[in-house]
């Protein structure tokens, strides 16, 4: 399951997470973001050793700025509170699997 987060719970859910976290920085109006959402949902069902979360950049502009999100979707993998890798733009299932494998 992909969990919706905000600035209020980002530190607890992402930075202090005991397992890697894939963060989908997105916006409701973004077409490629809408294409990526079902792929992320499917991957979240397949992988249990990684957390999957979404951050709406329009509602959480400080987080987007802090992590230099200039283009969306912007998929960022965190491990131990640090950015490990990222991908920009719509991604297919294989690309997302490869992205999280870098964090494991």
Automatic annotation (TrEMBL):
Residues 1-104 form the Thioredoxin domain. The keyword Oxidoreductase does not apply. SUPFAM superfamilies: Thioredoxin-like. Disulfide bonds join 30-33. The record marks 24 as: Deprotonates C-terminal active site Cys. Pfam families: Thioredoxin. Belongs to the thioredoxin family. This is Thioredoxin. It comes from Moryella indoligenes.
